[in-house]
Specification:
Layout: H1 2-35, E1 39-48, E2 54-63, H2 73-83, H3 86-106, E3 113-118, H4 120-124, H5 128-139, E4 146-151, H6 159-171, E5 175-181, E6 198-201, H7 203-207, H8 213-228, E7 232-235, H9 241-250, E8 254-255, H10 266-274
Parallel strand pairs: 2-3, 3-4, 4-5, 5-6, 6-7, 7-8
Antiparallel strand pairs: 1-2, 1-8
Helix pairs in contact: 1-2, 3-5
This protein binds ligand C2E and calcium ion (3 copies).
Length: 278
Amino acid sequence: AKQTQRGQLGVYTRQMGLEIQSRVKMLQDLRLSFEHQRLYLHYQPQVSLPDGKPVGCEALIRWRDDQGRYIPPDVFIPLAERSGIIATIGEWVMRTAFSQAHLLHRSGFTRLRMAVNVSVIQFRSGGFLETLDRALLDSGVNPELIELEITESVAMLEADYLLDMLKQIKSRGVQVAIDDFGTGFSSLSYLQRLSIDRLKIDRAFVDQLCESQDSRSIAEMVIELSHSLNLQVIAEGVEEQQQAERLAELGCHEAQGYFYAKPMEADALLRWLMNQEP
Ligand code: C2E
Ligand code: CA
Ligand code: CA
Ligand code: CA
């Protein structure tokens, strides 16, 4: 039995070694891809409920490695966060998305919001505000058209720091949404003190909205919370008309999801927007 155990341990550590190796490899690939400008953004429309009119879009990062394999952000963003390269990538995301927002503005979509995901690691790093300011200035975009999406895990930050950062961001006119709301453990008990504009209901709850009473309860809770705190609320991952109707009934202001449009390249977004009723 002892031998088997040792044998298993041997295999286990070798596997772990491999995992670490492949993570290091992936990180190297990511660095290289970034330098070679092989990262790009897709944009997914956000619409108002119940009329389905475009109100904004969310920038979502994409990576195809040098062998043409698509690697989802859920896989490489956590890696980038652990390695510190997230600051560099995050800055590039902001600059690219802000420029795109400005371009859309000049194409006549003067009220269209651009939402950008910001990692908590990036958000808590010194120099975030300077980076934000530079990106705003260089792109020429109206800051009021920009929204930063920060996940509920910001709750792990020190309250004073978080309050101050959000105030600073607000003072630039930039909007803030709390992403994946309802998935965290905290649900930010001091939400009413935060300078935020919008809560975003995670797609996990939208997915089961019409089937599961639990999901429905959470969606309801987030919408009611938004109403009572005078915040806007948006639901992501809307794939069916029934979900959109249910959300609208519950008083959800906006929606995003495959039912309306998938994330797409900038020029496809422009075409999509031009095909919508004014
Ligand atoms: P998220 O911010 O919660 O983004 C929503 C995810 O749901 C996106 O996945 C989007 O493509 C997907 N989605 C949208 N509508 C639907 C739908 O109707 N059905 C389904 N099944 N999925 C839908 P994606 O693009 O793979 O991004 C995954 C996560 O990676 C994001 O979750 C976000 O946390 C992170 N991420 C993406 N881009 C960035 C970025 O530029 N910076 C940072 N820090 N994180 C990013
Ligand atoms: Ca998001
Ligand atoms: Ca997320
Ligand atoms: Ca989400």
